[in-house]
Design a protein that fits this description.
225 residues, Serine Threonine Protein Phosphatase 5, Tetratricopeptide repeat, 2 domains
């Protein structure tokens, strides 16, 4: 190879060098991405080894409620709060055990009876749930939430006379509760009391004007809202 040929090869290499070399900024970016991937992988491995998971609001509430019971085991309110926390976490049988502990000391505790009834519904024990909620309604006939729960239960079973007995005291006492007025309208409609049903559906719409169920009830009856 002559000196001229050598210079020519060198010149060609130098001409290609800017295209073949990786820019400095790109090299830094690749390095940062590699470090990030390694960091994420390391976190995932640590999480898998230690089984650390973010705690939900329900988990935190349950932990705090349990700590309160541990500190005040004789406090019925602490037991009630723990039962509710367990119920919110889907631990219905454990929640019922807490409510029973409250009811053992205070058989008429309305919150414990209502929550127990709803937990029993979640466990598909409808018969016992019905009995518990009726115990509450016999003591407090205008308990709106218990009346609503039983009303919806009887509506689902098409037991409209039972619905009226369960819901009417609370519906009369709380005309502002559209759900109760609707349930009464539904019961009266199916018991062939068109005028009474109309009044109840309109009462529901008075407080919740866009309630579709009440509007549908009036349409079935052929009357205007």
């Amino acid at each position: 190879m002559t000196q001229a040929d050598a210079r020519t090869d060198t010149e060609r290499a130098e001409a290609r060098a800017p295209e073949d070399l990786v820019p400095a900024w790109l090299a830094v970016l690749v390095l940062l991405l590699l470090l990030a991937v390694v960091g994420v992988a390391g976190y995932a491995i640590r999480a898998r080894l230690t089984d650390t998971r973010p705690q939900s609001a329900a988990d935190i509430a349950l932990r705090n409620a349990q700590a309160n019971v541990d500190a005040h085991p004789a406090d019925p309110q602490a037991r009630l709060d723990l039962g509710f926390a367990k119920q919110q976490a889907g631990k219905y049988a454990e929640a019922i055990a807490e409510y029973d502990a409250v009811l053992a000391k205070d058989p008429g505790n309305a919150a414990a009876l209502y929550n127990k009834g709803m937990a029993l519904f979640q466990l598909k024990d409808s018969k016992q749930a019905e009995e518990v909620l009726w115990k509450l309604l016999k003591a407090e006939p205008t308990h709106a939430l218990a009346a609503k729960a039983l009303g919806e239960y009887y509506a689902g079973k098409h037991q409209y006379r039972s619905l009226v007995v369960a819901v009417k005291p609370a519906a009369d006492a709380r005309p502002d509760m559209a759900d109760l007025q609707y349930l009464m309208g539904l019961a009266y409609e199916n018991l062939d009391h068109k005028d009474w049903a109309t009044v109840r559906y309109r009462e529901a719409l008075k407080y919740v004007p866009d309630m579709p169920e009440a509007r549908a009830g009036l349409e079935r009856l052929g009357v205007k809202p």
